[in-house]
C-alpha cells in the first residue's frame, strides 16, 4: 500500500457527537479547513456525513471511523462490516477501527482489514496496549494508534498521553505508529514524536472548545480560590 500521508506530522481529529455544541452539519468541515490552513497533514473524522463534508473542502487524507454503540458490546469504533462499508463509501482514505483484544474478534477484524484492502483503503488500528498493537500489525493493519489507551479497563487510566506505550510500540512495530489520546499541548506532541511516533493525532485540544474552555476555567478558578486578592 502506498504512503497515505505526504509527510510525518499532525493529524487533527474533527469530531462532535450528538449533544455536543458543535454537532451541527458543516461545522466539522470548517474545523478541518482550519486544521488544513494551520498545517495539519491529515484529518480524523467520525461518520459518513462529516467525512463527505470534509472531503469536499480539504485536500488532506481523511481517516474515517463510525462510532456506534451495540447493546452488550464494548466495541464502538467502526465495529462491523456495515460500518466499515459506510466509511469506505463516504470516501475515507483510511478506516479506523477498534483492535483492542476484547470479545475474541481477531478473525472478524482480519476479515474487515481484508475488505478494506480489497477496496484500496488503508486501515488504522485503535489499540490500548503493546500486545494489541503487535496483534493488530500481524493482522494486517497499516497504521497502529494508541487511541484506546485509557479507555479499556486494563490500560493505564491517566490524565495525559500514554507516551510509555508509544515508546514500547516504537521499539517493536514496523508499521507507522500514531500517538493519539489526551495530547493537549504542542510540547506533548513533540514528546510523542521523540517517543517514536510517526504521526500525532490531536482532537479535543483543537476541536472541542467546551473542553478547552473548561481547562482555562478550572485553572483560573483554582487560582482565584487560593488567592486572597479581593475582586475589584
Ligand atoms: C477513545 C475514543 O473514543 N477516541 C475517539 C476516537 O476517535 C475521539 O473521541 C478522540 O477525540 C480522538 O481519539 C482524539 O483524542 P483526543 O481528543 O484526546 O485528542
Task: List key phrases describing it.
single chain; 232 residues; alpha/beta; TIM Barrel; 8-stranded parallel barrel; 41% helix; globular; binds N-acetylmannosamine-6-phosphate
Structure description:
The protein is α/β, with parallel strands linked by helices and 232 residues long. The protein has one domain (9-226): TIM Barrel (Alpha-Beta Barrel), CATH 3.20.20.70. The chain contains nine helices and eight strands. It has helices at 27-38, 48-57, 81-89, 106-118, 130-139, 163-172, 186-194, 204-207, 209-226; strands at 9-14, 42-46, 62-65, 94-98, 122-126, 143-145, 177-180, 199-202. It has an eight-stranded parallel beta barrel, surrounded by seven helices. The longest helix is centred in the last third of the chain and has 18 residues, at 209-226. It is globular, with a radius of gyration of 18 Å. The mean pLDDT is 97. Bound molecules: N-acetylmannosamine-6-phosphate (LRY).
